[in-house]
Write a structure and sequence with these properties.
206 residues, alpha/beta, Rossmann fold, two-stranded antiparallel sheet, 8 helices, disordered N terminus, LOG_fam, hydrolase, EC 3.2.2.n1, AMP nucleosidase activity, LOG
C-alpha cells in the first residue's frame, strides 16, 4: 500500500533560479538572444543564476550576460567535464562534483525554481526529472519552460496529448508553466502558490 502524506503549501521566495539550457548555441540566434533577455530579467529582480557551469553554448551566453550586468552566477559541473576545459572560469562560485547525479542534486538544492531554455537531450532530462520530483512531492518550487521561437511546440503538443490520453493528470500537467518570454514567466513564478500535493514515495525509495 502506498502511504500518502500531505504537504503544507507555502509561497516560495525566489532568490535563485536554476536554468537548464544547451551547451550548444543552436541553429537560431533567437535562442542566444533569449538567454540575454533572461539574464537581464534575472539581474533586474536580483535573482541569482544557478546553472550547469559551462562557458560554451547557450549556457555560456547566459552566464556571461548575468555577470556582465553585475549579477551572481553559481556554476555546478561534474569533474569529467571540468577537466575537458568546458567549465566557465569567471563565475561567482564554481562547484565541481564527482558525478552528474551529484551535480543535479546540488543544482536543485541551491535553486528556488527551475526554467528550461532551448537545449538538447540533457536539458530535457533535467527538466523532466525536476518536474517529476514536483509531481512526487519532493519539492514545492516552480518549474517553467521558455518556448523560444516555437522550439518546444512539438513537445508541448505531446504533453497535451499525454494529458488527453490520461497518462498525465491535469494538476501535474499544470505544474509546468510554459511561456514565450522571461518576463511573463518570472511574473508567474513570483505569484506561484504551490498546490496541495502528497508524497507518493519517500526519498529513500528513489
Amino acid at each position: 500500500m502506498i502511504t500518502e502524506k500531505p504537504i503544507t503549501t507555502t509561497k516560495p521566495t525566489i532568490n535563485s533560479l536554476c536554468i537548464y539550457c544547451g551547451s550548444s548555441p543552436g541553429r537560431l540566434e533567437a535562442y542566444a538572444l533569449a538567454a540575454v533577455s533572461l539574464a537581464e530579467a534575472l539581474v533586474s529582480r536580483n535573482i541569482k543564476l544557478v546553472y550547469g557551469g559551462a562557458g560554451i553554448g547557450i549556457m555560456g551566453r547566459l552566464a556571461d550576460n548575468v555577470l556582465k550586468l553585475g549579477g551572481e552566477v553559481i556554476g555546478i559541473i561534474p569533474k569529467a567535464l571540468a577537466h575537458k576545459e568546458v567549465a566557465h572560469q569567471n563565475l561567482t562560485e564554481l562547484h565541481i562534483t564527482q558525478s552528474m547525479h551529484e551535480r543535479k542534486m546540488l543544482m536543485a538544492k541551491l535553486a528556488d525554481g527551475f526554467i528550461a531554455l532551448p537545449g538538447g537531450i540533457g536539458t530535457l532530462e533535467e527538466l523532466f526529472e525536476i518536474w517529476t520530483w514536483a509531481q512526487l512531492g519532493f519539492h514545492k518550487k516552480p518549474c517553467g519552460l521558455l518556448n523560444i521561437d516555437g522550439y518546444y511546440d512539438w513537445l508541448i503538443r505531446f504533453l497535451d496529448h499525454a494529458l488527453e490520453e490520461q497518462f498525465v493528470k491535469k494538476h501535474h500537467h499544470a505544474l509546468l508553466m510554459v511561456e514565450k518570454t522571461p518576463e511573463v514567466l518570472l511574473e508567474r513564478f513570483a505569484k506561484y502558490q504551490p498546490p496541495e500535493t502528497k508524497h507518493w514515495l519517500g526519498k529513500n525509495e528513489t
